[in-house]
Amino acid sequence: MPPVMLLPPELTDFSIVNEQGFATIASGETLLGSVTFHNPNDQPFTIRQIVIAGRAPGGTHAGGPYFDLSPIRNRPTIIAPGESITYSASRTMRVTDPLGVWEFYPTWQEPADSEWHDGESSMIEVVRLPRDDDQDSGM
Length: 139
Description:
With about 140 residues, this protein is mainly beta. Helices cover about 5% and strands about 50% of the residues.
């Protein structure tokens, strides 16, 4: 009997926003991400790892630099037939983080092929909020 071929999990929802729900974030603010996977098969489906990846301006999926949200789900996750799972992660933006438009996307690894599979990207602009002393000096 030939091996059963399972369909990949369906990425049914991905969101990434700051705590206020905006697509712009500043240093010190926390970025919140969540991704939902659905198993359309009649057998369980295993995902080896799940990451909500972050790439600063000029970064690439394969080469980084990596500014991923935490925690990274580093253990196998079994999705029962017809079921969905939601994974959430966050990252507080640092003063040292590059400014500009960042790319965030869900990525997961399947045990069968060890390849990483990327979902659709969302773009978030990282800005520096003016400090009180900037406004006082006329900047």
